[in-house]
Batch of 4 targets.
Target 1
Amino acid sequence: MIRALYTAASGMEANQFLTDTIAHNVANANTVAFKKFRADFNDLFYQTFREAGATTLSGGQVPSGLRVGLGVQPGSSQRLFGVGTFQNTENPLDLAVAGDGFFQVLLPSGDTAYTRDGSFQIDATGQVVTSDGLLLADSIVVPEDALSIDIADDGTVGVTQPGGNGAISVVGNITLARFQNNAGLSSMGQNLYTETAASGAPQQGTPSDQGFGSLKQGFLEGSNVSIVDELVNLIIAQRAFETNSKAVQTADELLSITNNLRR
């Protein structure tokens, strides 16, 4: 009965973790390019009273063992990099990656971070930056007198200027980075990721080339969170939490009966 208390308590903690994960997903349902998390769980070790295949006193062999599990624990919090829905913004500086790949931005420390959030802007010097003012690593500078900005699927950035008779002048190229294991990236907030040993080193390339996604100007990638799926998961987590709490209550009642035994 004491074992049941701790086993059920581990189930309550696990479902609280699942609820926290769902809440984080729902909170970011409208965050640009947000990738939802999935909570994975592992069963804890088992207390074994008799091993399967053991020999009995009569010389027979036990076909199945006798053991009891001791609960559950969170195993991992995996980010799922499925592509979200594209939203047409008609903003020439909004970019979406149709396929695999991350934009590369420079952190204040000089290190490179990676993002799927393509809601770029222009700062006072004409440089293309994120909404937090981080520079695009490709160092794209838009001339002050630019009349329009055109970004091709392969990342070529061109502008038209007065007196150019509508001709497009190339001012730079946007490159992408991809990883062997996107789930191994470290989330640092602000829609940014950094590489880890688990993600592998970044592979840089041109959009639309060699497995890299193409760029779509005037679009943003939405969150890949499905509110319906999250609500269903929330109901499952709630019911599992209630059931585990009921197991705690039952074990407590059994202990109470034992404590009140009389000779």
Target 2
Amino acid sequence: MATEYKAPAVEKLFDILELMVENNCTYSLIELSKRLKISTNSVFRIIKEMEHRNYVVRTLEGTYELTPKIYYLGSKISDRIDVVNLSKGILKELSATTKETVLIAVLDEKYNTLVLNQVISPLSVKFISTPGMSYPTHCSAMGKAILAYDKSGIADKLELTKMTGSTITDYEEFIRELENVQRVGFASDMEESFEGLRCIGAPVFSFNNNVVCAIGISGPSFRMTRENMKSHSFEITKKALELSKLFGYKEGDMNETD
């Protein structure tokens, strides 16, 4: 029989959270204590920590209610699961066609490029990432593909740190790079993040024309020649459009916006 490990404080936290989510109403400390049979002192400490982290807010009546932050976290997880599941077949097809590692990524809360999933190249020399790993967005092909269509001004908040001799660190040049992505439909990383690694990335849109993620092809520079990258660009933009349609995007919509 497996050993049971208990964390009483964590159990109480989840009891409080689940109660507040299920009933979607405000509670006083005393009400929470009575409903859950937890000491008022314990409830007070837990609620104050939740308030400090902006998961609950105190109302004018002195009760506590959940903030949208908890729903935001849930929706972000749901979005990522949907993205991963919807893209699996397309990533496999793209990797089979190009023989390179194919990835899918979003921007995380710090505006880094966060890898959600990958299909690894079958070749002996290849690029391998790790789902959950993040990279600086300004030198990532997938990151640039997302930023090119971002409407919230994220590009203004990035620090263009020099990663290699090819990294774009001039802001005006970087903006021109993003404008070019809009013109051609895909972004490139010409050894800007790692020496010897080249990538291309294409944006994936949703039904409301917002970018939901980007897919990318990454491989060693001796194989990712400009000629091969041009060939791969046709494949990746085609697959990005296929994935966009799964999110409800209608081809040609972007020409009608902005």
Target 3
Amino acid sequence: MKLVTTALLLTALMAAPVCAKLPPPSDADKAKAAEAAAKTAWSDKVAAFQLCRAMDRSVEYYRKSAKAAGQEAPAPIATPACTDPGAFVPPPPLEASGAHSPATTATAPPSSKDAAAEQHGQPKK
């Protein structure tokens, strides 16, 4: 019975750190994750482009060899053209979008008893 109790106690002590909360990711970590996701999406597009080109080459080879052997190849099926994804362009940093940029520096208090004309150096009418 002591062995079972000891095993349960050790299991409970080892499981406690698993339940702890992780700190929120920093902006640098978020930027790295966004760039990694963009790079993964781009590499998937490159792989699809390369696969499309390989399938086109194999169909072309099949048609040439069938024609050389005197056989008739079936009619080609219309498929969309292979689109080249181009070079990888990393996403802009979070601050470049202006979403988190602070407002301009205040030159006057947000509310005052002065008229708007007086705040801009003009006489009050």
Target 4
Amino acid sequence: MKLNIDISRCIGCGLCEETLPGLVKTGKLTATVIHPDIPPNLEKIAQALVEYCPAEAIEVTEDTT
């Protein structure tokens, strides 16, 4: 699975970095995905985060490679 953040929607609240440390880094205004590949043990957490993001900026997709 892959993690993506729509920076045009992101408000930089930090929820994703708190939930997925090491995959996401929050800056002053937005978050950035630093490792888009979601480890299998974090897939359910990442999918739940899609629902909890207050800006609806997080997307989790199947890895098609």
